[in-house]
Amino acid sequence: MSTELISRITVKKDGVYISSHSSNDNAPFHSWRCKGLSEIYAAEGQKGLDREIVCMLYEYCQLRGSHKSLDRYRYATDSLQAQEIYKKYSDMIDERYESLDEADKKTVWYKPTEKAKEYKAFERDMRQKMYAEIAKRCGEYDRKHKNRDLER
Predict the structure, then answer these.
(1) Structural contact between residues 63 and 6, judged by C-beta atoms closer than 8 angstroms
(2) Separation between Cα atoms, residue 131 and residue 145, nearest integer Å
(3) How far, in Å, CA of 28 to CA of 19, rounded?
(4) In angstroms, rounded to a whole number, what is the distance separating the alpha carbons of residues 49 and 59?
(5) Strand partners, 61
(6) Same domain, yes or no, for 35 and 99?
(7) Which of 120, 137, 141 is nearest to 54 (CA)?
């Protein structure tokens, strides 16, 4: 399974652009307009974009290189606070899974029972909350650097 490697994230007037390539591809990084991220940014602004990028980083992407557009996402995801947030939500998800009886556990991934469906909905909800909470750290990064820039 491949991972999408991201070297730059740019917001332009016409949308959100990602410079990326697949980890199982020798091609160089290429910049492209990401329709999904552009739609989220248009609908929800920077907070929605941050949440979705954090989700991508936990699910199927990695940051590569040192472009300044990546700094805020590294700040959000590579911290002790992010690890604590991740553990808190993972523990809640695991606890809910363990509360299922064996028959329901066997159906979580194939022909789920009502209890298994409830678990999957809970898991999705908790993951979205986790990503949103971690993504808030992007705003914290922005405030710290804005204050630092104002002091100069």
Answers:
(1) yes
(2) 22
(3) 10
(4) 15
(5) 4
(6) no
(7) 137
Q: Map residue 32 onto helix, strand or coil.
A: strand
Residues 61 and 103 grouped into a single domain: no
If asked whether residues 41 and 93 sit together in one domain, one would say no
Residue type, 57: L
pTM value is 0.90
Are residues 78 and 147 part of one domain? yes
pLDDT of residue 69: 95
**Judgement on whether residues 87 and 127 belong to the same structural domain of the protein:** yes
C-alpha–C-alpha distance, residues 30 and 134, integer Å = 27
Buried/exposed code over 105-135 (b: 16+ C-beta within 10 A; e: otherwise): bebbeeeebebbeebeeebeebbeebbbbbb
State whether 113 and 51 are in the same domain: no
Are residue 91 and residue 145 in the same domain, yes or no? yes
Residue 5 token pair: 């490697």
Residue range(s) defining the domain that contains residue 113: 74-151
Alpha-carbon span 131 to 64, nearest angstrom = 20
Q: Which residues of the chain have pLDDT under 50?
A: 152
Which of 7, 128, 129 is CA-nearest to residue 62? Answer: 7
Q: Total domain count for the chain?
A: 2
Looking at the structure, do residues 132 and 81 belong to the same domain, yes or no?
A: yes
